[in-house]
Amino acid sequence: MNQEINAKIHKQAKIPTAYEYAITLLSKKNYSELKLKQKIATKKYSLEEIDQAIEKIKEKNFLREDYYIEGRAKGLLRKGYSPQYIALKIQNEGPNVSAEDIINIANENGIDLNLIKQELVNKKLKTLGPEMSEFEKKCKIRTFLSSKGHYC
Question: Which value, in Å, is the radius of gyration of the alpha carbons in the chain?
Fold first, then answer.
């Protein structure tokens, strides 16, 4: 009964249903199930409506977390983050993924993890002045690399 009332209200006000809103979101980019639920919830849909929309989307195979994981991992790899850091970040967003999965994604897409790390070092070296001692430079580089999840 409650669903019927919500559906009538949405039709009369031309407000998209939770399902329609989810489809609109997924047409623009991939989401994890958790991120999609959070995004839909910002529009004040009931938890019941959100859960039903997610189930319907999953039944139709529109929610592709594997695409989400790959896209998110590639984006973070391009920014220089380590596979371990990326795995933790994605796990916080819902999907279960390991550092090995991230390394496999990098390898499948021709991303050289050692080259990324070297580019980070070069990037940091450009910002360090010539007056700094070698020890200070090494400390700054280690701190910078660790901020991206790399261990020295």
Answer: 22
Angle (CA) 62 76 65, round 5°: 15
131 DSSP 8-state letter: T
Q: Which residue bears the tokens 């991120």?
A: 35
Residue 36 CA to residue 13 CA, distance in Å, equals 23
**Residues 37/50, Cβ–Cβ less than 8 Å:** yes
> Residue 7: pLDDT band by 50, 70, 90 thresholds?
low
pTM assigned to the model: 0.79
Could you tell me if 70 and 101 are in contact, meaning their C-beta atoms sit under 8 angstroms apart?
A: no
Sign of the Cα pseudo-torsion (119, 121, 122, 123, in order): positive
